[in-house]
Amino acid sequence: MQAKAPRMRPVTEAEAAAIARFARSIGVGPESVAANPYVLEVPGASYMDVFDVPRPLERLLPEVGAMYSAGYYVGSIEGEEFRPGLPLAHRLARLCGLGLRCIVLDVKGSMAFLYGKEVQEDHVLRFSEGLAVVVDPYGEALGWGVGRKVRLKTKTQALVEPVKDLGWYLRRGG
């Protein structure tokens, strides 16, 4: 018996809804995440990678057969949840200040973030609660982080916790 090959297909309504929920949660429309979303369907896989496929390339997909990627990788869908990828942070970083939920770190905070360390409030130039694109002071995307407020004895402090960052390959041995 021959195993089924992976294939690219347009997202279902449920998958499109997961992308839309994610997009709204970070302050952008679903078209900012993927104007023409396709998933890579791999038989037996627990998640599906999501790509933004250019319209001219879309016409070729049925003719290619087995395929592992096409277009621009934006993240993955597992169950009913969309999980953003690092390339999507780069794509969206230009929208900081235009509605996108962003966290801006100073140089020292950027280094800590890239080393997978929590960033303290004194290194945060612009804060946003929840999942956000994290950028350095020059607007370059560093990855995805979660901004949260923590109550201390005498005050509330903002912290940024890395979720997915560019430094991961260094920490995991390349």
Detailed description of the structure:
- By secondary structure, this protein is of the alpha+beta class.
- Helices cover 25% and strands 35% of the residues.
- The protein has helices at 13-25, 30-33, 55-58, 61-64, 86-92, 107-114, 168-171; strands at 7-10, 37-41, 48-52, 72-78, 81-84, 102-105, 119-120, 124-126, 130-135, 141-151, 156-165.
- Strands 7-11-10-9-6-8 form a six-stranded mixed sheet. A five-stranded antiparallel sheet has the order 1-2-3-4-5.
- The termini are far apart.
In short:
Helix content is 25%, strand content 35%. The protein has 174 residues and is of the alpha+beta class. The radius of gyration is 18 Å and the shape is elongated.
Unreliable parts? none
Tell me the major beta sheet.
6 strands, mixed
Note the overall shape. elongated
Number of strand segments: 11
**Largest beta sheet: what is the strand line-up?**
7-11-10-9-6-8
Kindly state the percentage of residues in helix: 25-40%
Write the layout of secondary structure elements.
Layout: E1 7-10, H1 13-25, H2 30-33, E2 37-41, E3 48-52, H3 55-58, H4 61-64, E4 72-78, E5 81-84, H5 86-92, E6 102-105, H6 107-114, E7 119-120, E8 124-126, E9 130-135, E10 141-151, E11 156-165, H7 168-171
Parallel strand pairs: 6-9
Antiparallel strand pairs: 1-2, 2-3, 3-4, 4-5, 6-8, 7-11, 9-10, 10-11
Essential attributes:
174 residues; alpha+beta; five-stranded antiparallel sheet; elongated
